[in-house]
Amino acid sequence: MSWSWRLGKIAGIPVNVHWTFLILIGWVLIDSWSRSQDPLTALAGVMFIVIVFGCIVLHELGHALVARRFGIKTSDITLLPIGGVARLERMPDRPTQELQVALAGPAVNVVIAAVLYFVVGVGFPEATNDAQKLVRSQFAQSVLAFNVIVVVFNLLPAFPMDGGRVLRSLLAMRLPYARATRLAASIGQFMAIMFGLAGLSVQNPFLLLIALFVWIGAESEAVMVEERVMLKDVSVRKSMVTEYHTVGLDDTLGHAAELLLSGSQQDFPVVTREGSEFAGVLTRSDLMAGLARGGPEARVVDFIKHQIGGVEADSSLADAVRRLREGQSPCLQVLDQGRPVGLLTLENVTEFLMVRAALDERLHVA
User: Fold this and answer.
1) 167/102 Cα distance (integer angstroms)
2) In this structure, are residues 168 and 178 in contact, taking their beta carbons and an 8 Å threshold?
3) CB atoms within 10 A of CB 170
4) Which of 160, 172, 210, 252 could lock 217 by a disulfide, CB 3.0 to 4.6 Å apart?
């Protein structure tokens, strides 16, 4: 995730913190100081937030380690003011596996709370519905209450939160995966409306932020799954571009700009001087930066920043799209037994999906 700083690695998984997390730290520090005028109290408030987010890292690590058991890697864990995000490369294909991954995070918080309550003997604070009272309570009691709240809150059926994913996996045991996702997303969006109304009624901006996150996340997850279902068993060959322009290493940026203006192509493969293979790709943003710095007479070779990956024409289009979305390459060279036959970009994949959806709609109407 952009604008994040690396804190380190846990179990080989990078842990990042987004810069907006500093806003939360600053707000807690200022709020604690304004209420108490005591530097130790203000520091205690910040330390509580740090411990809380340590629990969140362990929560996300639970998801990541169970996903690893099923051969799914985690790109990173990022801390945000509203919580943490473990970026799994994909969700498990089997509903039973997704159920285990979804429950793994809350299970970590259950273990933390159980150890504090049964082993350490920590009791609950007198009130847990006021964040200020939590911060002013004893640390162990506050941490115990927080982990219980995390478990209860995360298991609400608000997709794409953990409870929503549990719901989706249970529905997918009886329904097609795409339909189960859309149903879970609809329930999640209903929960988002409830969060929003609650936030307005009690004037709590945090609930409004959660409502927005749930609504957007539910819809994007549903669209992504529906896209994946549409791309299932479709080869790259079906969606590749066969008519496209290339530029040479010694071509000028002015020539590339003319090609950009003459059509809809935005990324241009750069061929070697021999013209037998691709040396990289000149993206539209790199072209604009090059024109601003070197002018139209500057050479393409001086502004290539991206390599171009390759993909077999008969391989899975869904896998190729995942590579493009991960940013490994702005476009992919399509090969047929080592021979270049086309180019694949997210733009032409989107057009392919639009055409396929239109044809499907025509069949349903007929």
Assistant:
1) 10
2) no
3) 18
4) 160
Number of separate helices (H) and strands (E) present in the chain: 12, 10
* Separation of CA 80 from chain center: 12
For residue 284, the number of C-alpha atoms closer than 13 Å in the C-beta half-sphere is: 9
Alpha-carbon gap, residue 302 to 248, rounded angstroms = 12
Contacts of 231 (CB under 8 A, 6+ apart): 316, 317, 318, 321, 353
The dihedrals phi and psi of 142, each to the nearest 5 degrees, come to -65, -40
Query: Global pTM?
Result: 0.72
Tell me the pLDDT tens digit for each residue of 258-298: 999 998 888 898 988 666 678 888 989 999 999 999 999 99
What is the DSSP code string of 291-315?
A: HHHH-TTSBGGGG--B--EEEETTS
- The CA distances from residue 82 to 104, 254, 310, 323, 363, in Å, are 19, 46, 38, 28, 44
Interacting residues of 221 by C-beta distance below 8 A, sequence separation 6+: 159, 160, 181, 185
Contact 155, 109 (CB under 8 A): no
Phi, psi values for residue 279, rounded to 5°: -100, -10
Residue 150 belongs to what H/E stretch? helix 139-154
Quote the CA–CA distance of 117 and 217 in Å, as a whole number. Answer: 34
Residues 53-109: tens digit of each pLDDT: 899 999 999 999 999 999 999 989 988 776 788 888 888 879 999 999 999 999 999
